[in-house]
Design goal:
- With 164 residues, the protein is mostly beta strands.
- 14% of the residues lie in helices and 40% in strands.
- It contains four helices and ten strands; from the N terminus they run βββββββββαααβα.
- Strands 1, 2, 3, 4, 5, 6, 7, 8, 9 and 10 form a ten-stranded antiparallel β-sheet that branches.
- The protein starts with 19 loop residues before the first strand and ends with a helix.
């Protein structure tokens, strides 16, 4: 077992009005704290999905666990080969190396607090996703930065087969 000892001197406080917002409905990401501001302890964002929107395609993180806490609504979450439905107040923690993905339940909204620990510099990853959405970068460009953001895409029959 390894122990991560974060190295930062000041408390991290992010006011909702000050958080950078990436994207817009149906998928909005509020960047809350990146690894650099928490001494490597964690990185966290709030993701709001409306109308059954997809959040993230199947992927894994080799060096971090990912926590999903449902602030409101309902989400489908891939955990390995299982797709489960999480509702308000539910917590799901996916260990390093395990495939996972998330989306709002069809026709529903989901508001999630997501934490990676130990932290990874993720803000620039979400900005990269915004550039893809705006047509300024290609989806294939994500393959070039998988190692940088410890975000390795993969296929999943369970995820692909969850909806008719």
């Amino acid at each position: 077992m390894s122990l991560i000892v974060p190295k930062f001197d000041e408390s991290v406080v992010v006011r909702e009005a000050e958080a950078e917002v990436v994207g817009r409905a149906p998928t909005t990401v509020r960047l809350l704290a990146d690894s650099s501001s928490t001494g490597g302890a964690l990185s966290t964002q709030r993701v709001t999905l409306t109308g059954g929107a997809d959040g993230a395609a199947p992927h894994r993180h080799d060096n971090s666990a990912e926590m999903f806490f449902l602030l409101d609504g309902a989400a489908e979450i891939l955990c390995g080969d299982e797709v489960l439905t999480a509702g308000r107040g539910d917590l799901v923690v996916v260990p390093p190396g395990r495939p996972h993905a998330f989306a709002a339940v069809p026709g529903a909204d989901a508001d999630l607090l997501i934490v990676l620990a130990p932290g990874v510099e993720r803000f620039e990853y979400f900005r990269h996703l915004r550039r893809i959405a705006l047509g300024e970068a290609t989806r294939e460009s994500l393959l070039e930065v998988q190692d940088l953001y410890d975000n390795h895409f993969m296929s999943s029959r369970a995820w692909d087969g969850r909806r008719p």
